[in-house]
Amino acid sequence: MSKKRVSKPLGLTRPNLTEIDSVWYDLSREGQPAWPGGPKTTPPHKDWTENEKWAWRQIHKNGNADFNSLYKHDPQLPTDQEWSDDTKNDRAIRPRFLEMILSSEPWKTALPYSGFSLCGAYFLETLDLRRISITSRLTLRYNIFEMGVILKEADSDHTIDMDFSNIKGIANFENLRTKKSLFLRNTVFNGLDLKNAKIGGLLSLENARSNASILMLGIDVGGLLNMDEIESKFKLDMSGGHFRGQVLMRNATFFNVVEMKSIRADGNVYLDGSQMKWNFYINDSIVDGDCYLNDATVSTGLEAEDLTINGDLWLKGCCLLKMPENYALEYPGESEDDEEEPYEGLFFGWSNIQGSAILCDSQLNSLVSFENASIRKTLKLDMEEPQWGESGSLVLRGANIGTICDTISAWPHVEGSVDFEGLTYGYFGGGEEGEENQLTKRRGEWFVKLLSLQRNDSPQPYRQCYRMLRAVGHTRKANVVKRALYEQRRKSWKQEKVDKEIRKDRAKAISWRNPFRKALTRFEIKGYLRYAWRTALKWTINYGVGAGYLRSLLCGGLLATIGWLVILLVHYGVMEGIELPKLNKHSLAWWAAFSLDQTIPVLELAKGHTDIIKDIHGIPRAWFMFQKFGSWFLALVVVAGLTGLVGRKEE
Fold first, then answer.
1. Do residues 292 and 315 touch, judged by C-beta distance below 8 A?
2. Among 155, 131, 127, which Cα is nearest to 140's?
3. pLDDT by residue (tens digit) across 293-326?
4. Dihedral class, residue 613 (left if φ above 0, else alpha if ψ from -120 to 50, else beta)
5. Pairing of strands 209-210, 280-281
6. pLDDT value, residue 262
7. Burial status of residue 64 (CB atoms within 10 A of its CB: 0-12, 13-18, 19 or more)
8. Higher pLDDT, residue 528 or 400
9. According to a count of CB atoms within 10 Å of the terminal CB, is the N or C end of the chain lower?
10. Contact yes or no for 448/420 (Cβ under 8 A)
11. Cα(415)–Cα(476) distance, rounded to whole angstroms?
């Protein structure tokens, strides 16, 4: 059986023509059906320029009008687009042309369903498409917009692509609505306004350059936000934005203020390798994933107070620089009203981090603050430990941390460079890898040295460290810290008590002639007495810590020995105080027992020891009276220590 030959309808094929003849062939068939019974082609408007008519024929024909291909010109990046006047005239397109084909019949209906692209064109006037409804994909690549682009309150069901364009005026996309994506990759613009825009898909500003402010307040991005390698010379404001995908801002450069206040990111936030040369704000925000600042460089300050991170905070390899003098003169604001003073440091105060905070291998030359923050899992300072500069400091005041993993040399080493007051944690003093990181390898003196670097030398961190060490079974290390706590309390009596009492009695002291001086004098006396009591505890029972009570036996033995030496001095006539008949009545051994008896309260080792004191006078009598008083004082201190009266408040 032979195959049935199917004939092609007239108009579906074109003769084999040269490129120039092909153009004339298409012009000759404008307004004619492509095949018998088919739809007619839509001719260009009579008032359009030759460039616009050519662009329409290309769009109507295959959906792509590319001036670069027409003139066999390789596409250039926006920063390299320097066109001559002749080139601009050859590529000139009026904004009215785009407005007509997007909104007016019959051209709107004749647009390809899959969308169209216009590339390599030159727009001398502002492209104003505000409140327009875009019914197909719009691609405007490699164009120059001399006066800017306005898509304010425009609406689209499709993607808008303006990659590699040079927008010399402002790009106003305020309240733009698109169900798909918005591409502005490798685009240069003189300001970008995306306030309250709603992007259903991806928003890409990758490698874009802005010579004015970028405003994205209240923006809603349904997909990925890609701002990798963006360069913002002026303010970037993303406050109140909702980003339902990942936020990529890697290797970006911010020369001015960045505000990401009160944002909501449903995925991870990546700021790896970014350079922040001015204040960066991400406070009062919620990140449902991880927040990455690995290898980022912070020249001034990053404020992330009240930040909630449901994953981990990564600061590995982060470089926090010391801000030089007159730094504010190097990067001024966009206007005088926008200028603000720079500040130094990383501030994560009152933040809530559900995972871990990793500061490994960082260069920290300024303040890092986690004041009153909550880190549920781990604060990691181990493995590749951070390097602290002379101005580097760490504030953990009031923080609540699950575990602190560190190395011995992972902490700031300058006095006053740490603040542990109010810090609570479950475990501290070890890492996850390597024996050198283990708690068992550290002496108790190491903890004391670290705690002594505090700014105000508060007693609370000593108590917290003591409780932790005792809980994990390191009793000796805990006792070293406990003794250091008592010593700290002994030395800081004035600042600790006087100021507190003066503040409490201020209202009561109004009627006094010189109330503060009297209050200070009154409480200074109490302070000196307290200092004397704690000093006595130190030298008698070593604050009652561990084997410190043995020191009381040494003190008692010292008193008894000195008493016996006094007897010897009287016996050999060096001093007077006991009559010779009564002195010689007893042997030197009996007098040694007498001296020992004066050191032991309540008990009497031999008869006559109590009565003989009446026959002693002068210096020997004064000494034995002091020795008796000292023995009762030692007994009092020992009883106070054994019953827990000493150090109950500290524990």
1. no
2. 127
3. 999 999 888 999 999 999 999 999 998 887 666 5
4. alpha
5. unpaired
6. 95
7. middle
8. 400
9. N
10. no
11. 25
CB count in 10 Å sphere of residue 235: 22
91, containing H or E segment: helix 85-91
Binning pLDDT at 50, 70 and 90, where does residue 494 land? low
DSSP state for residue 6 in the 8-state scheme: P
Separation of alpha carbons 283 and 272, rounded Å: 18
Taking CA atoms, 474 is separated from 255, 409, 439, 471, in Å, by 51, 21, 9, 8
The residue behind tokens 């590339």 is: 119
Torsion of CA 347, 349, 352, 358, to 10 degrees: 40
Per the document, the length of the chain is 651
Residue with tokens 């980003």: 243
Distance CA 420, CA 455 (A): 9
447-466 CB burial, b ≥16 within 10 A, e <16: bbebbebbeebbbbbbbbbb
**Comparing C-alpha atoms, which of 477, 475, 485, 471 is closest to residue 444?**
477
How do 387-388 and 367-369 pair as beta strands? unpaired
DSSP string, 102-136: HHSTTHHHHS-TT-EEEES-EE-S-EE-TT-EE-S
Q: Quick check: helix, strand or coil at residue 585?
A: coil
- State phi, psi for 33 to the nearest 5 degrees: -70, 145
Question: What is the three-class DSSP state of 250?
Answer: coil
Structure tokens at 504: 């409490």
Residue pair 490/539 in contact by the 8 Å Cβ criterion: no
- Asked if omega into 106 is within 30° of 0 (cis), the reply is yes
